[in-house]
Amino acid sequence: MATIKDIAAYCNVAVSTVSRVLNNHPDVSADTRDKVLSAARNLHYVPNSSARDLAHQQTDSIGLVVRGAENPFFTPIIRAIERSCEDKGYSMSLHQIPAGEDEVSEGAKLVQSKRLKGLILLGGRYDYTREEVSTLGAPFMCCSYTNHFGNLDRTSFSSVSINDKAEAYRAAELLIECGHSKIAVLLDSIHDRSISERRYRGYCEALADAGIPLDEGLVCETVDFSMKAAYERTIRLLEERPDVTALFSVADSMAIAAMKAISDAGLSVPQDISIIAIDGIEMSLYTTPTLTTLAQPQALMGEKAVEILVDVLDGKASHSHVRLETTLRPGGTMGRLHP
Amino acid sequence: MATIKDIAAYCNVAVSTVSRVLNNHPDVSADTRDKVLSAARNLHYVPNSSARDLAHQQTDSIGLVVRGAENPFFTPIIRAIERSCEDKGYSMSLHQIPAGEDEVSEGAKLVQSKRLKGLILLGGRYDYTREEVSTLGAPFMCCSYTNHFGNLDRTSFSSVSINDKAEAYRAAELLIECGHSKIAVLLDSIHDRSISERRYRGYCEALADAGIPLDEGLVCETVDFSMKAAYERTIRLLEERPDVTALFSVADSMAIAAMKAISDAGLSVPQDISIIAIDGIEMSLYTTPTLTTLAQPQALMGEKAVEILVDVLDGKASHSHVRLETTLRPGGTMGRLHP
Q: Fewer Cβ in 10 A, N or C end of chain B?
């Protein structure tokens, strides 16, 4: 593949002349322009996108910052965003960071260095401040979460997510309807100002509405979302609380680890312990029994994120906030409590 | 955040002057240089990396093209590569493509547009030709696979992988040692010129060495690596061949789907069917029973890939090829056949 220097040598003109032609500058003769463009074709020149970016100063790119790329929940969302960007005529610039890192500062760097038109943050914090997002420098969209614990003006950004609290309420309610009252909850932290805290509140509210007192010994915090921590915390729960009959896990992956812990403790799902979760990842279709879970509409979430952001970028609509609903994916982990 | 134009206006100099200062051109007075650099600091100027790339023409970046990013097997390898690049003073430019796409043409584009020094391909084809990789334009490394079915000169690239055939031989041999002879194999295709074909050959050789004739009814091709296809193919195997007592799966994820199929068919692992796989992903630690598998050294694979490639880039060593060994991760899916 040829460089700009090869084309210059081939045409016997200056490198700067080739550059002017390739960047559509007007001050080049028609003859020279034809000669250079024909050489670029013949030599299979692929433009350096750095040079192209610099010439245009603004590409039609949307940035996607994924926080916690190893999370299988994000895979179908990323695919849907990629596909939708393409459909809308935008290129997508994907940037993945570990779960603990700062998606806002990464996003700000990405917007400036790649001259992005807009930004989708996938899997971020729920508590952004106005000051911090003001550094972003482009319209942005929170995908799979929203600013529940922050102070952003709702007209200054968009979001697509489920209603964490309402969905957790529904999960706990389904267990209660099966006769359970000793219902444990498996989560990161009740004060994480994020998914766990929101879903914990839904769990608490469902118990309260059913007249079941909150039992702190059944609140299982794991400090992180790892399967290892979920496994160990469930083992401890079973040792400490042999009266537990049901478990609500805030994530499918943690529920899979909990099922393993229950089996290793010599107990059965759902005969001894019923389980329900929220997410709907592919892997939880293949547990035995199949995990009963409230499945998030992952592909739709990705499509909506692009649709809304592109409408904002194209000036067709203002920022907006969409709440999607989960679908109960029936499995075999939930059973009626036999008194 | 300020642009180069803001700095020019602030200092009352031309934009081209600011550009010359920021790109370390010599033809600027010391006074002007100081004024511009001080303004850049005061205005919190963040250099546009496109401009920076153009100025240097060559950054200290290694590209990583991941084919099939949704494969959980790659996650710990990507992390190790990222960490190792950082340790070695290189930045890593990550690019993910779907499993069916062409990592070589993507890699070539990436090398040219981002002026990469070297390239790591993670999860690619086993049959590159000399012609096709000649377009890459930078030293490259095949990570997790090698050029077994291609015609590359071994001195023209590096690789880190396991010996697929030898490891599959070992997996089948472990089942044979437990008394099994009706051993099915679950794979993509026996002619995929890739992982499945290599591991199939190891399986065949182990059977042959044990005097067990190859039984084509026990060779289960799935056309792809999806869990859905693995599940359906296993269901069909159990219907067609009630005499099967063991299964070797070329991948953990397919083995997990097979376990579900066996359970849904009313059979038990390992009482009715023993299972062994190759990979060692996190999820297969949480199946019931735990999957017995030959675990690949994923982190070491990533570290070695960077180490070898950086030595090549720094001129410290020639290209080389490293074969790593798996470790038997004992689980509960393999049992002795009781006659």
A: C
